[in-house]
Amino acid sequence: MTVSYRLSEIVAQLGGRVMGDAGVRITQIATLENAQPDQISFLTNSKYRAQLAATKAGAVILAEADADETGLPRIISDNAYAYFAKVSALLNPLPEAKPGIHPSAVIGAGAKIDATASIAATAVIGDGATIGAHSVIGEGCCIGANAIVGSHARLYPRVVIYRDCVIGDNLIAHSGAVIGADGFGFAMDEGRWIKIQQIGRVVIGNDVEIGANTTIDRGALNDTVIEDGVKLDNQIQVAHNVRIGAHTAIAGCVGIAGSTTIGRYCRIGGSAGILGHLHIADHVEIAAFTLIGKSIREAGSYAAIFPFAKSEDWRKNTVHLRHLDDLVKRVKALEQELGSLNLESLKRIP
Amino acid sequence: MTVSYRLSEIVAQLGGRVMGDAGVRITQIATLENAQPDQISFLTNSKYRAQLAATKAGAVILAEADADETGLPRIISDNAYAYFAKVSALLNPLPEAKPGIHPSAVIGAGAKIDATASIAATAVIGDGATIGAHSVIGEGCCIGANAIVGSHARLYPRVVIYRDCVIGDNLIAHSGAVIGADGFGFAMDEGRWIKIQQIGRVVIGNDVEIGANTTIDRGALNDTVIEDGVKLDNQIQVAHNVRIGAHTAIAGCVGIAGSTTIGRYCRIGGSAGILGHLHIADHVEIAAFTLIGKSIREAGSYAAIFPFAKSEDWRKNTVHLRHLDDLVKRVKALEQELGSLNLESLKRIP
Amino acid sequence: MTVSYRLSEIVAQLGGRVMGDAGVRITQIATLENAQPDQISFLTNSKYRAQLAATKAGAVILAEADADETGLPRIISDNAYAYFAKVSALLNPLPEAKPGIHPSAVIGAGAKIDATASIAATAVIGDGATIGAHSVIGEGCCIGANAIVGSHARLYPRVVIYRDCVIGDNLIAHSGAVIGADGFGFAMDEGRWIKIQQIGRVVIGNDVEIGANTTIDRGALNDTVIEDGVKLDNQIQVAHNVRIGAHTAIAGCVGIAGSTTIGRYCRIGGSAGILGHLHIADHVEIAAFTLIGKSIREAGSYAAIFPFAKSEDWRKNTVHLRHLDDLVKRVKALEQELGSLNLESLKRIP
């Protein structure tokens, strides 16, 4: 199945305005470099202007400021990148999933599955679970007892949602994601760890995306909460009782320790970490590979990356880190020694 | 199903002593802040004393030293946190799993499944595998050929145990855990990697918990070993031939490279790493985000966290790390220059 | 089933030459320390020579230079470690999988499954997917619509391959691996993230191994590409549009951000990271725990590990990192002050 749209039809749906031939028919999105005459591309970074000049694309999406950079048919938008995202969705509707329950799926007693939902082969829906309208539960997914999944969810194969968790509408969850496993809570008692039962849930808002093999633990006593519009990449670990504020985006391999609260509209780089029981303000950016060990009260950009170097240079410089306190003391001693001297008589005459 | 206990019944089972009304009936545990009159809470950190004063809990668990901090009905215990953990288990028995094999499960030839065990929908038990008494194998779990799982195991959906691995009693394994995949072993031969067959097993003791999406590789020649009482959080990677000593607890996202031995009662923080072929002593604590690159022979606390800062401050300071060796040389040159001077005559008269 | 070979039969298949009794029969590989008389071991590191002297192995594999280090029957090879790897494969053929489709597997319309392939219990093969000759698709694997898996693949239980991905011959993929999930691409639009449809594929060459719970995202517009002979350990995250050059080996927990290109024959240590849109040359080695934030144009070894220490020493030294720029300024001030003085008269007479 190939979808196609004229530029005029695209702007009728998505806004913006056309310059040049609005009748050009578009079937797919592509990079400037690879686009074909039936494809549309975009420019959001001026360093690709040379590619714009050379592109074979049938049309491009441009910001107002770049409107005259090409003679190609073009759509002008205030936010060319977001416009491009919307066109990508228009031209690439998700494969339809047939409503109904595959014969190999296993449905628990009292499960409430909307007639428009699709339950794929070998999926297991627990007792009393709810699956909302138009939701697609992929192959091998396991939805725990009494869990609730809202409408228009798209769960790829082998997602697990533990019992009692509550998910809003429009969830996208990729394969291997695990929502609601026990948080890591133990008390030491006479040389043995005693497990603390994790009786909270995971509660997820609307419009959330969860990457492959990401894990979100259920709360110990209260709930773990993921607010509306949060986007989580692959292999992220969210510990018990974390709260992630609306529209925060987190890149792959990040770990967030227990009971930490992250604000709204934060952006967290790959493999970063946040220790437990901290508060991160709204609109905080955290660089990749950065460990946050204290609360951040102020919006802004934070980092803690150790700079890489050729191994021999790294070794030569890094050895001194173990003696940095000594070095500071040596500098202080030099300052005191010089400070104790009357140097007037030694000043060079300029 | 709601479980409830009077304080008198709790101390009859778990020890400790009651102060105040021992007839108070408790149905659940909760934080001081959120507890209701039919719930019990606890105080183990004096900074929450204000919450103790304000709590609506029906009862609390306190250390001896705090016994008079409230007039609420209370249980006094030497180890209030461990007591709380035990109460959490008492009030929250795991959902019962019906003994028997779900019709959609697939059982290999010669598999020995105890009559009290429960094999959930779509689970697959390999040829010759053994499942012990009262063990629960969750939906979609795959137990490899000739693997042995002891009694009272609780495997959540989609755990994989590869062939020949041996697991003790009381295992808890969360969804997506993979036990016994091949270790990462190759030899370079004329420009190509030749795989070294991984013929060891994973051998796991009693009372071990394994978090969601954690991976424990089988040994190359000998076995990978996880001793009794080890607790592993989510997304931990344990490479081939690692040995983890009894009662060690490891937080999420830690990576442990091949053939490293970790002692007993260690605690390892989130996203830490340990290189291969090292020995870590008993009772070692490793901070989050710390890479251990040499063996640790002495109990104690170790760290290697690069401090975070506002990005502009981080940049300003970090640039000098590439020149630290030069800086040390400059300080040495200053010391030598001053040391070469006869400064007696310049001393200020105090 | 036990396989056994005489040394003479081994060299007939794998080359090298025998010294001593070529009729010794070998059934397994083992370490020098644990080997039994029916087992073969190897020496590639001279620090194990004492173990060679004491081993009970029936035979050993040695380099030419070590040929006279023992009187045991031995195979001499230029590359003893690679030879050992080949013997490990000879003695440990993978368990045979019966060709055919398990009755509990679910096969989509138009799927092309070679008659010699094996589809295990509860596996799901999507519409139009292709499974090549002698490939083994493990329990619970999900192969997406129109995906292509070459010949002689070995997918362990619960591997997911999303729709349209293309895999060469001889793939080994361990449990929980996810190939082809959506890349992490969003555009911010009036306070909301708009998803960019990920329409590229994952394209994987021949002879690739993928570890447990590793994730490789599909491309945004173009494809994500893994070239021939690449070896990926567990829990690696490969973002959209990454290209990994042939015969590169990557240890566990590494994260590679979007659109980065990694050369051939690179070796990347555990938990390292590489930021997006970078180019890494061929034959680059990256140390464990190292973040690469700029392109590397030159082969060689690179590192960025913060050295660990006892926590009190770490704290004492690390506090100065926040003031490194000040320290450099203080050293500069000292140099300028000294430089501004006429010190001739103060020189000590030697």
Describe this structure in words.
The first copy, chain A, has 350 residues and is an alpha/beta fold. Chain A folds into three domains: 5-91, Udp-n-acetylmuramoylalanyl-d-glutamate--2,6- Diaminopimelate Ligase, Chain: A, domain 1 (3-Layer(aba) Sandwich); 100-302, UDP N-Acetylglucosamine Acyltransferase, domain 1, CATH 2.160.10.10; 311-346. Chain A has an eleven-stranded parallel β-sheet, with no helix packed on it. Chain A has a ten-stranded parallel β-sheet with strand order 9-12-15-18-21-26-29-32-35-38, with no helix packed on it. In chain A, strands 10-13-16-19-24-27-30-33-36 form a nine-stranded parallel β-sheet, with no helix packed on it. In chain A, helix 2 links the parallel strand 5 (39-42) and strand 6. The radius of gyration of chain A is 28 Å and the shape is flat. The relative contact order of chain A is 0.06. Chains in contact: A-B, A-C, B-C. At the A-B interface, strand 22, strand 23, strand 38, strand 39 and helix 4 of A face strand 4, helix 3, strand 40, helix 4 and helix 5 of B.
Describe the protein's topology.
The structure is a homotrimer of 350-residue chains.
Chain A: E1 5-6, H1 7-14, E2 17-19, E3 25-26, E4 28-29, E5 39-42, H2 49-54, E6 59-62, E7 74-76, H3 80-91, E8 100-101, E9 106-107, E10 112-113, E11 118-119, E12 124-125, E13 130-131, E14 136-137, E15 142-143, E16 148-149, E17 154-155, E18 160-161, E19 166-167, E20 172-173, E21 178-181, E22 186-189, E23 192-195, E24 202-204, E25 209-210, E26 215-217, E27 224-226, E28 231-232, E29 237-238, E30 243-244, E31 249-250, E32 255-256, E33 261-262, E34 267-268, E35 273-274, E36 279-280, E37 284-286, E38 291-292, E39 300-303, E40 309-310, H4 311-318, H5 324-339
Parallel strand pairs in A: 4-5, 5-6, 6-7, 8-11, 9-12, 10-13, 11-14, 12-15, 13-16, 14-17, 15-18, 16-19, 17-20, 18-21, 19-24, 20-25, 21-26, 24-27, 25-28, 26-29, 27-30, 28-31, 29-32, 30-33, 31-34, 32-35, 33-36, 34-37, 35-38, 37-39
Antiparallel strand pairs in A: 1-3, 2-7, 22-23
